[in-house]
Design brief:
mainly alpha, Phosphatidylinositol 3-kinase, Chain A
Length: 204
């Protein structure tokens, strides 16, 4: 199965979250992140680097674990944590609809980075107007990357742009999408737990 085929949903009695396969990948990385000293986890590698073949091999191995529902290993050189980020970006990029649709970008064109109460209110209304599952995926993914980068640093300055491209399925991503992702990441990563159920509930 390809990343685009990961679409099974939790039971109706459970809180709505991203697909369990995607959640398991993020939780696998977070567990190792918390067990390692700050700044020591390599969670991102440049897809345009000379190690492209290695990255593709790691992605295939991760996909194999996801497809079979196997428990993810620890300290396995064939399946390092850095394979999770490109896996998630690819999954976001091939979804039938972008997590952050064009109409959402258009709706925030009048906002800027100054966080007044009025702008916070408008941003909140914008998020609530998104469909529930895309909104939950957006907040959960941003929480994941926010917590990882806060603890271990950002190894490549182009990562936010790549994340914005995946979430909007546009290349290059609109500037307002970059701003929205930055602001939301700063907000949601403050929630210590994962997934960020409190923040998700606040925007429901």
């Amino acid at each position: 199965a390809s990343p685009s085929s990961i679409a099974r949903q939790p039971a109706s009695t459970d809180p709505l979250l991203p697909p369990k396969e995607v959640m398991s990948v993020m939780q696998w990385v977070l567990i190792q992140s918390r067990d390692m000293k700050p700044g020591t986890l390599e969670w991102w590698t440049d897809p345009l680097s000379d190690n492209h073949a290695r990255m593709e091999s790691e992605l295939r191995e991760l996909q194999r674990y996801v497809e079979h529902g196997w428990c993810f290993p620890r300290d396995n050189f064939q399946l390092p944590c850095r394979s999770a980020a490109p896996f998630l970006l690819r999954w976001l990029g091939v979804l039938p609809e972008p997590i952050v649709p064009p109409q959402a970008i258009q709706a925030i064109q009048g906002l800027n980075a100054e966080l007044t109460d009025e702008r916070r209110s408008k941003r909140g209304r914008l998020l609530r107007e998104l469909k529930e599952l895309p909104r939950v995926v957006l907040l959960t993914v941003l929480c994941f990357f926010g917590q990882i980068s806060s603890r271990h640093g950002s190894f490549f300055s182009d990562f936010p742009a790549r994340l914005a491209c995946a979430l909007t399925q546009q290349a290059p991503a609109p500037e307002m999408a970059l701003w929205l992702i930055h602001v939301l990441t700063e907000e949601v990563k403050a929630e210590r737990r994962f997934p960020p159920l409190q923040t998700i509930g606040a925007y429901s």
